[in-house]
Structure formats: C-alpha cells, structure tokens
Design a protein that fits this description.
heterodimer; A: alpha+beta; five-stranded antiparallel β-sheet; four-stranded mixed β-sheet; 11 strands; B: alpha+beta; four-stranded antiparallel β-sheet; 8 strands
Chain lengths: 367, 393
Amino acid sequence: MNFDFSDEQQMLREQARRFLSETSTFHALRERIAQGALIDHELWRQVAELGWLAVAIPEEQGGLGLGALELCVLAEEFGRSLAPVPFHGTVFLGAELLKRCQVPEAAIWLSRIASGEAIIAAQPTLRWDSVSLHLDSGVVTGNCEPLAYAAQAHAAILPVLQAGQPALVLVDLEQQPLPSRGARSLDDVVPYAVLELDQTPVVVLAEGEAAQRAMRQVVDQDAILTAFEQIGGADAACQLARDYALERHTFGRPIGSYQAVKHKLADMAVKIELARSNAYFGAWAMYAGENADRSLAAAASRLSATTAFEYAARECIHLHGGIGYTWEADCHFFYKRSRLLAVILGQPGAWVDQLLADTSLNQLQIR
Amino acid sequence: MDFNDSPSEAEFRGQVRTWLDTHAKDFMSSSDHTDVISFIAKAKTWQAKKAREGYAAIRWPKAEGGLDGTPMQEVIFQDEEARYDVPVGPFVTIGTQLAVPTLRTHGTPEQIEQFTQPTLQGELLWCQLFSEPSAGSDLANVRTRAVKDGGDWVINGQKVWTSWAHVADWGILLARTDPEATKHKGLTFFVVDMRSVGIEVRPIQQISGVSEFNEVFLTDLRIPDRYRIGAVGDGWKCAMTTLMNERVNVGGESQALPNVLELIERAQDQSSGASLDRFKMAQLLTQEMGLRYFRFRLLTSLSKGETPGPIAAMSKLVYANTLQELSAMALDVTGLQKLQAEGDKFQHGYEWAAALRIAGGTDEILRNQIAERVLGMPGEIRVDKNIPFSQCR
C-alpha cells in the first residue's frame, strides 16, 4: 500500500509551505487590499522562477512535464497561504484547458504560462445551456460570468455557443483590450470582473465534443485541485483557532479546555482528515484513474472539502469571539475564501447529482 | 501513489491466500451462533490451525509461535481472513491480543509459561473483566475490591459488558487493592480461572433482544497470589499495556452492517417515489468513502513502518455516526413497508450504531482524545486526581 505522495512531492510541499509563509503574510495582504494592488507581481515572478507555473506543462512548451500530483501539492499550499497571485485560474484552468486543445495557439499560450508571461482568466462551466456568449464567424458577443483576475489577465478562455454547439475560445486581452466591469468579490483578496465582448475576435481552441470533453475533464480536475486548496485553507483556519483557544482565557481557564470548544476543534480535524482522504482518492484518480473514477472522485473531493473548509472557517471566527469579526484578526480571510471556493464550480447540487449518479458506485464495493 | 502491495506484502498476501483457500473452507458458515458449544470448539480448532503456521500471533517472535511479522502483515492476514466466514472474534483475540501481551510485559516467567502457548494454540479462551457499572469511560473508577487473605486475594464486586464470559476459561481482572491510595494507584491486575467458585455470569439482554455481553458478579472469589500480575498497586500500568496492545486497529468494513451503497440501492428500489434528502445521502457517502481512503492512508503509514498517529481514533467516531444516520435514512425510505418478522440489515444497523457510539471510547472521549493528542488542547480537569479513592464521589 502506497497511498501517499512521494518523497519528492513532499519536498515540493515543504518548499512551497516555507516559501509562501515567508512571502505571503496576512499583514501584507491587508496592505495590498488597502492599496487596491491585488496581484503581488514580485511573488508571481518568483513563483514562475521556481517553476511552479510549469510543473504540469509538457516539456515541449517549456514545462517540467510533471503531473497532477505536483499540482495537488501546490494547490494545498496556495490554499493555506492565500497568496495574492492568479495561480488557480492560470494553472488549474488555463493551462489545463490549453493542454487539451490541438490548435497551434494553445501551445504558444502554454509556453507563455510556463515562463510566467501570461496570466489567464478562465471560465469553467458545468452547464453549457447556461452559457451566454455566442460565437459567430470568428467573433464573440456577450458578457462572461464574473471571472477571477479578468481585468488583470493577458488572455481569457471562455466557453461559448456556436449555433447552439459548445466551443472554447481564447481572447487575447493585450491585442483586444475589453471593457470590464468589476464585481464585488466574496473574497477581498481575489478581484473579479465581467468582460464585455462585442464582436470580439477570438481564437477558437476547440469545438463541439472536443470542447465539451476538455471542459468536463478540467472541471473534474479543478474540483479535485480546489479540494486541496480548501484543505490547505481549512488546516490553516484550524491551526489559527487552535492557537487562539490555547491562548485565550475565560473564567480562569484557556477556552480550549472547555469541551464545547475542544470538541469543535476535534470536529474540524476530523472533517479535514476525511476531506484529505477523499482528495487523495481524487489525486490518485487524476493521475491514474479511469474516467469513471475521476468523476466520482471529483464529486467526493469537492463535497467533503467544501464541508471541511466551511466548518473550519466559520468556527474559526466563532472561537475567536468578537475579535474574530475584526479586520485585524485573520479569520475573515478564511471565512470569505471558504465561501468563494464553495461557489466557484457551480451549485453543490450538481456535485451531489454527479456523486450519486455515478455508475462506478458499484465498483466501490470491491475497492 | 497507488493502492498496490509492496513486493514483499504481495508475496505475504499470496501465501496467506493460498493457505486460507486450502484450509478455511472446513470452518465456514460459523455465523450460526445457536450452538455455542460447537461454535467455540470450531473456533478453537481454527485458532490451533493458524497457530501451527504462525498466523495466530504474527507479530510474536518465531521462537514463540509467531512469524516475527509486521503490523502490516497482521492487517493483511485480518483482511484476507475476513473474506471467509470463519470463527474469529473477541473470544479468540482477547487472549492473544490483550491478555498474553500484558502477561509477557508484566508477568513472571512461570505466568508467561503457563498461559502463552495454550492461549496461542486455542486451548484457552479469555474474557476481559475491566468495565464496571461505575467504571466505563472512567475505567480507573473500578470499585471491585481485592483483599489479601493469607496466600489468596478475596474479590468482591461486579463487572459488566464482558463478552464471552460464559465460555471463557480465564479472565483478566482489574480490582482495587488499596482504596486509601489515589484512584489510579490503588489498582492491581489479576488473571482468574473463570470456573472458580464465586463467579456468576448473567447475560445482558441488549436493545436488539440479543445477549452478546454479560454481567459478572464476583462474590468472595479467591484468587491465589501467584495469579497476580505485576506489583500490588501497578494494576493501572498493566491495564494500559492491555489497552495499548489492542489489535492493530485500522478499521475495515463489516459484511453484517449496512453501508451507504445499500442505502442508495434501497432508495432506487423504491417505486413509491419516496423523496430523499440527496444532500444528506451524498454527505453520508462522502463520509464512508473518506473513511475507506483514510484507512488506506493508515495502511500506508503501517506499510512504511510508521505508527498511525492519534487521529486514527476518528475512524470509529465517524463510522458509528454514519452507520446510525444511514440506517435511520434507509428506514425512512421504506417506512413500515419492509418490516419483517426477522427485521432487516438497516434495523440491525440502527440498533447496533447506538452501541458502537459508546463502546471502545464514546464519541465524547474520542473527541477529547483527538483534541488533546492531535491538536494539543488541555486535558480535562480531574477533581479526583490527588485524593484517596475512598474519598472520591
């Protein structure tokens, strides 16, 4: 039995944890929000230098040619640190979608991502029937959904409909600067904006079934990677709550000595371990599983990581008492991030359906 | 990352499978407990058969009948053995997993000699006389008294939740020898011949109607001093050895209890169109899956030669609560329609879950353990800590 990350992957984790804890502090986050400077470009440059943008990009495009498991490790550490860089959209969505598209432009953008030149804003979708962008004769019209870092990105990858059929397109935002409307984000750290397309020329990355398949795979995979982000965040929130429960005294005792408090902390730890275990299944499925496994693993990872992070983030504020509701305490970062990550991939009900509908459920009995 | 055995694990599993394939079939369909006597006889023979191959105590040294094996090998054997309906259970494992390891740590050479091999060979069945009506989660609150009288100890008191007391040959007993010492200091550990005069075993009727446990009344029971294990007053230390030696506990799934997949099947079978809380069902399924993959993570650390950390306590906590919820939900699905004379799996699950949330560490004790040992939270305040037991309430 070897249901764990390898020593090299653990080393990557330690490196990432150390680096991000030093470079991305809550204090710096607060200042950044106050200044409205929501990307830490210096950090982004270093992230590129460390090769993290390139881990899962093929070597032909300047990547490291490693895979899904390295992405899982990084996702957890970005989730823990809440680092203000557009890693998720660029790497988990942008690069992964591009990897599944055959047009020459895809390879070009992949090498730009690998080298740190390109930030990507991408719109995942579970429901093509709700897509409101339309492609006709190479141009797209309509408003995209609110996208993370849309106003800062070099390119946007969007699902569109072309005569009712799915397609994936890329808008080069340097060539075609688009008007964007800022949206108030659930999370102060991550800026969101809606791009307004009006007869905008695009690169068609994939059409029809190929587009649908690429999106389906990337959404499932993103559910798993997001689960790792959520677990990182949940773990950090749990640690924050734990430290405070040891330090804060009421009625002459640390609040962590009351069962009402310590049992909540135990429940956090339990939910995190369950989520982590399902996410490991997700990691395995991304790396080695069949399609059926991936779909099931994605749903299980997503649902249990959302549960864990929501619980940890809410109770983290609660265990801090009034101080937890202040801007100066760090709890709100997790409280808001947990809500954001809970809604980025469609309704929870869709994942419930995916979990329960999955035909591979029957195989579980053996495994 | 994979679910595969290492080459040496695969080799061991292969050996175990071959051996079980050859030998287990003569011992199957043991779940018919109606004839306890022949069931026990069969269990003893099965144990003897395993002992000849070293499978009865895999982690023991070869010279003493084990295989010098690893915890992982023990789990592999348990998993493979569980595929056959052979007579294993607490009446066998209390001896090799709890009693004898305690003796081997704290007993005299004579005591080790007398009990080790007969237990391994299945000749002796054991029961555990620890819990009492007022000593459950707070085990050190044992009130059963042991008073020295010449070369004997005279025991008076009551034990409870004793599995297989009515068929056991020997018991391990925790009793209070010094009520003036503090709670944990006044205890002493004994082994007792269950056929002695002064032992009365009464089955406890459980909420399921079945009796799997007993109360054991000890009245002027005499135990020769040579059956005292460890020093007088060292009983708690011995009992801790016992509890630390509980079998490599990494969970595993029971065929007898329902799971979420069966709940889903039942929900799909229902033509009544009963509306179900799909979110709740999904939550239960993710818990069940999480436990399965958590177990694989525990096995991975065992396989690497590590000891699973204190978070392992969560398995039973989550399992028992999941079982209770899923069983109740399945009964919701069918309502009164599926009530049968013999009851069904979910009814059994619903009843047993209530016991499971208590046995082997209540939900609350497990949460304390996780909070204290995993997260470093302060321990409970113990108001009876430094006062003589006789003055405790």
